[in-house]
Write a structure and sequence with these properties.
There is one protein chain. About 20% of the residues lie in helices and about 30% in strands. It has about 900 residues and is of the alpha+beta class. The protein folds into 5 domains: about 190 residues, no CATH class; about 150 residues, DNA ligase/mRNA capping enzyme (D-amino Acid Aminotransferase, Chain A, domain 1, 2-Layer Sandwich); about 110 residues, Nucleic acid-binding proteins (OB fold (Dihydrolipoamide Acetyltransferase, E2P)); about 170 residues, no CATH class; about 160 residues, DNA primase, PRIM domain, CATH 3.90.920. The radius of gyration is 29 Å and the shape is globular.
């Protein structure tokens, strides 16, 4: 680092002066395009606490036949990973520099990767560097796959940079043509011309544009069906894409991607988010469609759905590189402080075309004026669904179908939610006769008819399996439809399908309906408790809480919550955290309601109450014989102690969450079993001990593992000891995941809110707790044999060494852990936070608190959304 500092005058250059410490997680790399005396590319890889650097005069090549000279130069500080700008003339390296690429990397010699072990990766790289040959895998925005750096015999500084042959190699793709910064979206030419951001967009002369703040929860405008194509001078036409509708919200280099129904899907398409974040506009809202094209250049919806279901960030990154999706933008709602929704479509389109919002994965969808009939014929010939017609003067009408936007395709199609099904006759006993369909309009379910056609034999069986896994429900209509006397198995609405049909009856029923596909990208409807509330409604309740006095009444879905002492401090301030009040806790429960409620639904709750905060009395409450508002759900649970079935609280609504905040509930413990008969037809009778043993509450939904590091008694609150304990828990958890992978079981991990890790394995409810507990013990004993120096199953704390305790005894009816997103009544207001396996090594548990977790949820996503979607049958392990 001395050579680096000696060459620079830090009073003159904007380059970072000195290193401030090492990073965490995988090792990082960057490539800067540098227009100094000669244009070149600087490859910098993290190694030994610094950046080891090579100047590549001709830039990296994806062609394995190219051997690019790479001149080893002085080490740079880690802060250079994010540097771009103009180094003044006369200074060392004077000229323009953009951050051309960046990402993470791992050594890969022998096919062994170390992305999840930073220390091991660094040791391997230093050893290879000393030997004069490096082999590594890059995961960047532009560079990916395996590469090598080999020292030549010509002199000490000269190396060769070569791309290995793999799926990321290409003899035809000139990656250097992708010349813009991954940080700012700027090019060398932009910096040379003195441009540091997009020119400020000015809409003062556009009719309908108004100055405003960025809309936080916009809803997409929808199309009305039309029966045939047409051509008109005042209309424009576009090809109808078969993809996922998506709004993109950008502000201050941060981007959020929202599905049609307002769900945050940023984590599903990180490359698009990164690209938009690098654009030089300070704020924007775009409307468009995410599309995956097949080899014929036609949208592949099934392939896109497979992509959409990926949960692992490494899998998503791999697919982004192998088969990137494209965000086809067709409308502009907001740009640089101007709300454009009141402008004519023609003006919005002109502003969009004049913006800097295109990139490698973001493009503007082509519009064609007047020629609707010709475009329709061409689109159909090419394999597209049809076309969309839009009136040039149309304003953007949020959340509603408009006659100014028309979709035209062969026949009609739309999305409907399944609310029930009818049994098949004896010939199709393992499937079903028809699905009962509903539309969801203005918060109400409207009967749309039934569909039984369009299913292959395999599709019938697959759909029946999904129906059996869904939660039973009641008829959602005011009056049950007449289905000619056929009995209906009603379901809780949760699954959308697309149906093609020929026409509608006067009553709105579908004629000649045919099943097309399941719409995995559409979340359950917002009606009823327990699902994500419409964002605008949550925002409204948050605003009411912000404005409320100390004592107030908040009305949520018709339920009145009486709050008192809203500014009472539940968690006092610490050196690192601000105080957290009852009002803050209520806000937290609101913000995570859409994610916590599906995990609490129908589960008896044991609640830790601290009415005066964590410094006051703590008590564990199970039974509620009095004091419950009438709208709070409850379930009867047999109690040997009381000799009767006593009521437990069940949290199935936002109102109940807020009531728990008022009651000082600082920790939520849901049961692992639920009070719902489900497709298994389990009993809901819990009036005595025998009935309880045979009831649904005796059949768990999960096999649960609690990994708890044992700390020395005198270091239980020492931050360094707690961090060491958590890292050991992570190591054990990842080894346990390998065991699960070998058993073809999927587990879900979350922090405990302290130093432990909880792992939940969703299972079909066909085994009692005692059997599940025995299996958990078997898994624990095997893990203990694999990691005897790290894992113990010793129950007596005094006899445990400083190891991770594998607690299989959680798998008992009535035993509980702090639930997902539950706060913990300890200093700092930590919460139990869900994480993908890939993220376990990159976080510290204390970073997830009542104050920070909602934002972390946006950034990290919720990998537990799939927890109950696909329960696994543990019985196969016995055979």
């Amino acid at each position: 680092m001395r050579r680096y500092a000696d060459k620079r005058n830090f009073d003159q250059t904007p380059e970072p002066a000195e290193a401030r410490g090492e990073g965490e997680g995988p090792l990082r790399f960057c490539v800067q395009k540098h227009a100094a005396r000669r244009l070149h590319y600087d490859l910098r890889i993290e190694m030994g606490g610094t950046l080891v650097c090579w100047a590549v005069p001709h830039g990296p090549s994806l062609n394995p036949a190219d051997k690019r000279l790479a001149v080893h130069v002085e080490d740079h500080p880690l802060e250079y990973l994010d540097f771009e700008g103009v180094i003044p003339k006369g200074q060392y390296g004077g000229g323009q520099m953009v951050l051309w690429d960046r990402g993470v990397y791992s050594p890969d010699e022998g096919g062994v990767l170390s992305f999840d072990d930073r220390a091991e990766a660094d040791r391997r790289m230093q050893t290879e560097f000393s030997a004069g040959k490096l082999s590594f895998t890059l995961r960047g925005s532009k560079l990916a796959g395996s590469w090598t750096l080999v020292k030549t015999t010509r002199n000490e500084q000269d190396w060769l940079l070569i791309k290995h042959r793999d799926e990321f190699a290409s003899a035809s793709r000139d990656v250097l043509k992708e010349d813009r910064s991954v940080l700012s979206g700027l090019s060398i030419e932009d910096l040379r011309d003195g441009r540091s951001a997009a020119e400020e967009f000015d809409a003062s002369d556009i009719a309908g544009a108004v100055r405003a703040t960025l809309p936080r929860s916009p809803q997409p405008m929808l199309c009305t069906e039309a029966d045939k194509p047409f051509s008109k001078p005042d209309w424009t036409f576009q090809v109808k894409l078969d993809g996922i509708r998506m709004l993109a919200l950008g502000e201050d280099r941060k981007v959020k991607l929202l599905s049609r129904r307002g769900n945050d899907i940023t984590g599903k398409f990180p490359a698009i988010a990164r690209e938009l974040a690098a654009c030089p506009h300070r704020s924007f809202v775009l409307d468009g469609e995410v599309v995956l094209y097949n080899s014929r250049g036609v949208p592949d919806f099934q392939g896109l759905m497979e992509r959409f279901q990926l949960a692992s960030q490494s899998d998503i990154l791999r697919q982004d590189l192998l088969s990137p999706v494209e965000y086809c933008v067709f409308d502009l709602l907001f740009l640089d402080g101007w709300d454009m929704r009141g402008c004519a479509l023609s003006d919005r389109r002109a502003a969009l075309e004049g913006s800097d919002l295109q990139g490698a994965q973001t493009r503007l969808l082509d519009f064609y004026p007047e020629i609707g009939e010709l475009l329709y014929d061409k689109a159909r010939d090419m394999g597209f669904e049809g076309i969309v017609a839009k009136k040039s003067s149309s304003r953007y009408v949020e959340g509603r179908r408009s006659p100014d936007w028309l979709k035209i395709k062969e026949g009609f199609s739309d999305e409907f939610v399944i609310v029930g099904y009818t049994e098949a006759d004896s010939a199709r006993r393992d499937s079903f006769r028809s699905l009962v369909l509903a539309e969801f309009n203005a918060g109400q379910f409207v009967f749309a008819g039934t569909v039984g056609g369009g299913f292959s034999d395999d599709a019938l069986k697959t759909m029946r399996t999904r129906l059996d896994a869904m939660t039973p429900g009641a008829c959602p209509f005011g009056e049950a439809p007449d289905l000619e006397g056929v009995a209906v198995h009603w379901l809780t609405p949760a699954l959308w399908i697309e149906v093609r049909y020929g026409a509608r009856t006067r009553e709105g029923r579908l004629r000649f309906p045919v099943f097309v596909r399941v719409r995995e990208d559409l979340p359950p409807p917002d009606k009823g408790s327990g699902e994500a509330e419409p964002m605008s409604q949550v925002d409204d309740w948050l605003a009411q809480l912000d404005d409320a006095k100390q004592d107030t009444i908040l009305v949520v879905d018709g339920c009145s919550i009486h709050f008192s002492n809203l500014d009472r401090v539940f968690w006092p301030a610490t050196d690192q955290t601000a105080p957290v009040t009852k009002r803050d806790l209520a806000r937290y429960y609101l913000k995570v309601s859409g994610h916590i409620l599906p995990q609490l639904r129908d589960r008896p709750l044991s609640l830790v109450r601290c009415p005066d905060g964590i410094l006051g009395e703590h008590f564990f409450q199970k039974h509620w014989d009095k004091g419950l508002p009438e709208w709070v759900d409850r379930v009867p649970v047999w109690s040997d102690h009381n000799g009767r079935a006593a009521p437990y609280v069940v949290c199935n609504s936002v109102a109940t969450l807020l009531w728990m905040a008022q009651m000082g509930v600082l920790e939520i413990h849901p049961w692992y079993s639920r009070y719902a008969s489900g497709p298994e037809g389990l009993s809901l009778t819990t009036s005595d001990e025998a009935a309880m043993d045979a009831s649904a509450l005796s059949y768990p939904d999960f096999l649960v593992v609690d990994l708890d590091p044992t700390l020395p008694k005198d270091k239980e609150t020492d931050p360094d000891a707690m961090w060491a304990g958590f890292k050991m828990s992570v190591e054990v958890a990842l080894r346990f995941k390998t065991m699960l992978d070998e058993l073809q079981l999927e587990g879900f991990a979350k922090t405990s809110g302290k130093t432990g890790i909880h792992i939940f394995i969703p299972i079909i409810r066909n085994l009692e707790f005692s059997v599940v507990r025995a299996l958990a013990e078997t898994l624990g004993r095997h893990l203990e044999s694999l990691m005897p120096d790290k894992v113990t199953m010793e129950w007596v704390v005094k006899k445990r060494p400083e190891k991770v305790f594998f607690d299989h005894n959680q798998n008992v009816r009535g035993k509980t852990l702090a639930g997902i997103f539950s706060p913990r009544p300890v200093p700092g207001a930590p919460v139990s936070f869900p994480l993908s396996w890939a993220r376990l090594r990159t976080i510290r548990p204390e970073q997830f608190t009542v104050a920070s977790a909602p934002a972390a949820l946006v950034n990290y996503g919720d990998p537990w959304e799939r927890l109950t979607a696909a329960p696994q049958d543990l019985r196969r392990l016995g055979g």
